[in-house]
Amino acid sequence: MLGIADIDTADIEGIEEKEKEHPLQDRIRAEQIVQGQIFQEWVVSPTSMKLMIYGNFSSLMVETSALSIFCTTLIKAFRPRKHYLCLVWFCGRHLEYDDGSDSDSSDEEDDLDSSLYLGQYEEDNYSSGTRQGVIKRMMRSLIAQLLCDYDFGPRNLLPPGVDPELIEEGHSLSQLRHLFGWLVRQLPEEITLFCLVDGIFFYEREDFEDPMLDVLGDILELTTSDDVLASVKVLVTSPRPTSTVRVGFEDEDDSSDGAGETKTSILSMDLLIPSHVDVSEERVDRNLGVIEDERAREGLAESNLT
Hints:
Blueprint (H helix, E strand, L loop, with lengths): L6 H11 L6 H8 L5 H8 L4 E6 L11 H13 L5 E7 L16 H4 L21 H18 L14 H6 L3 H12 L7 E7 L7 H16 L9 E8 L11 E3 L9 E3 L1 E3 L12 H25 L1
Parallel strand pairs: 1-4, 1-7, 2-3, 3-4
Antiparallel strand pairs: 5-6
């Protein structure tokens, strides 16, 4: 019904094939992220968390960056682990819509005013020139990854208010957003869901921004909603500093005696200390394992004290 291919698998393979085209120092700096306290807290916290990581790469803007490579390493480390689910979307590899692999209508048709198809779904009515097709494709891919990686059992996987015909026809972003949020809320508390969105900088363009902000808002809301049982870890990366999206990672600190201080969940790669150690995907995976083992021991110690 979703009519979507294994985009994430193809993207990961494509990024790994071009890994050595990125400057070595950029790749080394990206690997250092796992040593940072902010990242480690994001990984091991038993509660839902969000994190943005951005670089300021000097190389020419291309579809991927050293952060994309870092994301592929995380995916390969997380997915084999029990009770972990990992969804990913690489924005820079999807700036155009039609690659001939899906059963959708053409890019031009899919980006038309949704009111031609929906009527009552006014929230799909973005301004003229907005390219919703790519964002709808992103949501269909995330939903498909979730359905493939987790067995929801024999239950009905369409919540009230979701029309299967609108999902299949691909004309309603609001329907896809509703379906994704509903599925995440069906996950049990022992599941940790990682949602990685790489290269968000590419979607800060005017023709992508409005639908992308709606989708990102939905995803970030999953980290704070009381009706989400699973731990949801959202990681958004960008090869360059962002202007609009970063607002979603800045929160007012209510405990500051009314001072209204802002605490951020943002990591700048400029703050990482330069290293001369060679690139090693195995070392990153090993470090992630060490971080998790330390957290598990801390949890066991706390349980014994109790």
